[in-house]
Design a protein that fits this description.
There is one protein chain. By secondary structure, the chain is of the alpha+beta class. It has four helices and seven strands, in the order E-E-H-H-E-H-E-E-H-E-E. The two termini are 21 Å apart. A hairpin with a 3-residue loop joins strand 4 and strand 5. 36% of the residues lie in helices and 19% in strands.
Length: 139
């Protein structure tokens, strides 16, 4: 697996583009839709921009060595996992869920996005397997 790492950011161009689509989703739909509605709108943006993605599919179907039962909202370009939330707060359980997804898929980067907030703040979650504790990579 070749990792694109630039200025301590995994997949900087793809991350930037995807974050833009997440902001567009939030700007268009507002704060009080369901995760499904955000996902549907985001998926249309992915299609219109010709991204390779899987939606709500068991990671075992994409990455053969995965443990069964891990189903994130989106896997983009087989590089970044995105999990949508539409609730008051992102919890530790949401974070640990993403860590599990990254671990079983052996991917470096996941993004948790909570559309309920007034101002969208996508949270980048890094798989610790891909950087040392002394690294200057931050989420």
């Amino acid at each position: 697996m070749v990792l694109v790492k630039n200025k301590n950011i995994y997949y900087p161009e793809l991350s930037y583009e995807i974050t833009g689509l997440l902001f567009k989703t939030h700007n268009e739909l507002g704060r009080f839709k369901t995760e499904r509605q955000y996902g549907d709108f985001f998926e249309e943006l992915l299609k219109s921009n010709r991204y390779n993605y899987c939606r709500e599919i068991n990671l075992k179907n994409i990455f053969k060595d995965c443990i069964d039962g891990n189903i994130p909202d989106f896997v983009l370009e087989n590089k970044i996992i995105i999990d949508f939330k539409a609730k008051k707060f992102i919890t530790k359980e949401d974070y640990f869920q993403m860590v599990r997804y990254l671990d079983v898929a052996d991917l470096p980067l996941g993004i948790i996005v909570n559309f309920r907030h007034t101002y969208l703040k996508p949270k980048r979650i890094l798989n610790k397997k891909f950087h040392s504790n002394n690294s200057s990579v931050h989420s």
